[in-house]
Amino acid sequence: MRTTLVVFVMLLCLAPTLRADDVDLPAAAQRVFNEKYKDCVHKTMRVSKAKAQESNFTVEFEDAKGTRFEIEITDLGEVVAEQQEVKLPDLPKTVKDTIKDTYPSARLIDAWLSTRGGQTVYVVGVKARDNDIVVKVSQDGTTVLKSEKATPKKKS
Description:
Shape: elongated
Oligomer: single chain
Number of strands: 8
Strand order of the largest sheet: 1-2-3-4-5-6-7-8
Largest sheet: 8 strands, antiparallel
Helix content: 10-25%
């Protein structure tokens, strides 16, 4: 009995851990995902229900180079939003300059290239005067489209 219990506990420790919100991606969405991102070697992948639309799924993944991606895809396989992490040194100078002009004391935290509804913007997290702010800047980097205080993400 004791040996069985020890083996069972060892198996539990070796089993992959999934977050509570991980769900299966429907077959049509999985096919589109596999085709669209066939060149990515997925190091990690997490699928959850999208908050805004119940029939949509959020897929977070990281490629072999460590670049993070997040897409929103419908159950039928239509990609409705895509975000790709942009390393801060790779952020266009015009975007950096526009943020510095708007928030002179800002420190850049992270950046993403985001496309939704045909509009592509840079979404940049900044720290300005002890506030975390999310700044959306036009793709050409010349216009601040929106600034808002960042909402802290839940820790998992």
